[in-house]
Amino acid sequence: MSNSHPIQLDPHGEAILEQYRSLLPVFKKMEEVIPDRIRGFFDEAGIVVAALEHRVKEENSLAGKLELKGAKYKDLFDITDILGLRVITFYIDDVDKVASVIERLFEIDWENSVDKRKLHEIDSFGYLSLHYVCRIPESSYFDPEHPELNRIRFEVQMRTILQHAWANMNHDTGYKSGVEVPREYLRNLSRLAGVLELADEQFSRIRTELTDYRRRVQALVASGKLGEVPLDGDTFRSYLELNPFQALNRKIAAVNQAEIQPVSLMNFLSVFKAMGCKTLGDVSNLIRDYGEAAYQIACYQIGLTDLDIISSSLGPQDLCIAFILKNGGGRAGVRMLFDALNGPSESNESIAEMLVEQASDLPFMNQ
Question: Helical H runs in the chain?
């Protein structure tokens, strides 16, 4: 049986539909203003969301709604979902953060707003979301050409990306076809919903645990307990904030009174790991044990030049060269270093050969 049929409205429904047509420019204006204000507040609060969707209900959709239950609405202002927005977050925790932004921006019609998360039965699974019915206060935004803008209510739906996936799957498989779904399929849908809920909770838990881990690492780094901190991307980034190579770079720069040009040093992480560093303490010890040798190499490199700008990578690079040469890595080891830092290139071979030859006469190689 087809779901399409000519829509027949009574005079009251026709009057509301005509009101919709006259106010459509206001709804379109709201569709421009509201998402922009929400995004602005998200930026200020540092909230990152997966998506911010919005739509104005089409005339045919509204007409179908009025045909079914138009009598319950006094006028168009009683209908709250003509303008609808949906904020999709990555994590459960962020739903409440988004809600706090919406509460600050708009007047909330609490009587008609629904938190489906709190209505959820303990022994069932399904689609959870937070729905706010809102209005723009004049103190926040007012357009004298469209005064109705502050009277019209609209809906904001907030849910996670997995809840959104569930809602779409449930809609497509559950009732969209108009065919009653057998219990065995409904049970499978419920089981799937449970898996998605569990995944949602675990993603949020993992993020919280990672945040706690990073805070602990930062505290250990700040306290100088580097030997207790494993060497990884997060810890190395925190370590670099202490400018551990600054003293060496300044000493090198003083040779020519050069300026130090800061660059990212994250590419040294894999190099230090390859050299056997397992903790930040190992990297710190490398600076301590090979700093003088690195300085000797740098002096040979730039001492007879008029170079007045050096990269902040020069100090750690020469540390690695000193370590490789002192530990018998030779030309092959130096070439591998330059391949790792700058990408494989035939020129790295000749550079490595020259450095090994120059370094052979330096004091650190004979100690």
Answer: 11-45, 59-69, 92-105, 116-119, 161-170, 183-223, 233-240, 246-253, 268-274, 280-302, 314-326, 330-342, 347-359
Whose structure tokens read 């009174």?
Answer: 257
Please check whether residues 156 and 256 belong to one and the same domain: no
Task: State both tokens at 74.
Answer: 């006094």
Residue 238, domain member (yes or no):
no
Helix (H) or strand (E) holding 130: strand 130-135
Say if residue 249 is in the same domain as residue 304: yes
pLDDT for residue 172 is more than 80: no
Is residue 141 scored above 50 in pLDDT? yes
Tokens of 58: 């089409």
Cα–Cα dist 48/308, whole Å: 42
How many residues comprise the chain?
367
What type of residue is 153?
Answer: R
The pLDDT value recorded for residue 22 is 93
DSSP designation for 181? P
Unique residue bearing structure tokens 């995004």: 39
Query: Would 230 be classed as within a structural domain?
Result: no
Q: Is residue 79 part of a domain?
A: yes
Last residue of a domain, one of 175, 202, 229: 202
CB atoms near residue 188 (< 10 Å): 13
The CATH number assigned to the domain holding 167 equals 3.30.460.10
Average pLDDT over residues 315-327: 94
**Neighbour-count burial of 180, counting CB atoms closer than 10 A to its CB (0-12 exposed, 13-18 middle, 19+ buried):** exposed
The answer to the question of residue 51 being in a domain is yes
- For 181-203, what is the mean pLDDT? 78
At 327 the three-state DSSP class reads coil
DSSP string, 23-85: HHHHHHHHHHHHHHHHHHHHHHHT---SEEEEEEPPHHHHHHHHHHHGGG-SSGGG---SEEE
Strand-strand pairing, 154-160 and 259-261: unpaired
Q: What is the pLDDT, as a whole number, of residue 204?
A: 86
Task: Output b/e per residue, 138-156; b: 16+ Cβ within 10 A.
Answer: eeeeeeeebebbbebbbbb
Domain boundary among 179, 202, 225: 202
pLDDT of residue 2: 43
Domain that holds residue 32: 11-202
Q: What is the pTM of this model?
A: 0.64
